[in-house]
What we know:
The protein has one domain. The protein is 63% helix and 6% strand. It has helices spanning 12-31, 47-60, 73-83, 88-107, 110-138, 144-166, 177-186; strands at 66-69, 191-195, 198-201.
Amino acid sequence: MDFDHDDKEPDYPRLLEEIPLLYRVRAFADSLNANTWFSRLGEPLDEREQHLARIYLDGLGFPEAEPAVLTGWEEAAGAAETLDRDPMAWEAEEMLRTSLAAQALERLDEQAVATALAMVAQKTGDTARDAVEDAAALADVGDLDLVHAAAGALAQAANGAALVVMAEAENDDDPHPFLARWRLFARGRWPVGLAGSTFNIL
């Protein structure tokens, strides 16, 4: 909450401007639905998923890259290991994340941003882990590090999507790449990440 340094009264105009945006963040958090998470792993990419992958790649600055479906958890493990040796996409995401955070802080105070992100993290934390553990159990996957990596990736994607909402960077005609990545998770996929010119999606 912002305060005036002279009389310590709340900055009511700023608060009134923040309230509608905070309600939108709350609505996003309430919309997080674990019923679909990790439910379509390994299936062929449909037209919508191809489109979302394209938006993500173009938005990060990798128009030459192409999405590719991974057929199982073993391939996902190999793709996840490759990410550690190919940080270009991670660096591009961090630049976008920094920009979104700055835009969010132009609209909300620091405490409001931190509280909103904590709310989203709480909504996704345990449920993401439960969802991916169920999917891994169905596939007889015993690699707990890989399971935790998938849950962490979903939580990070939700965090990025929440920043888009707070930065008011939503656009249905040309979605932000963080929203595109989140929507892949929402459709039951795990977008593992970009390796070279391949966007690996389980």
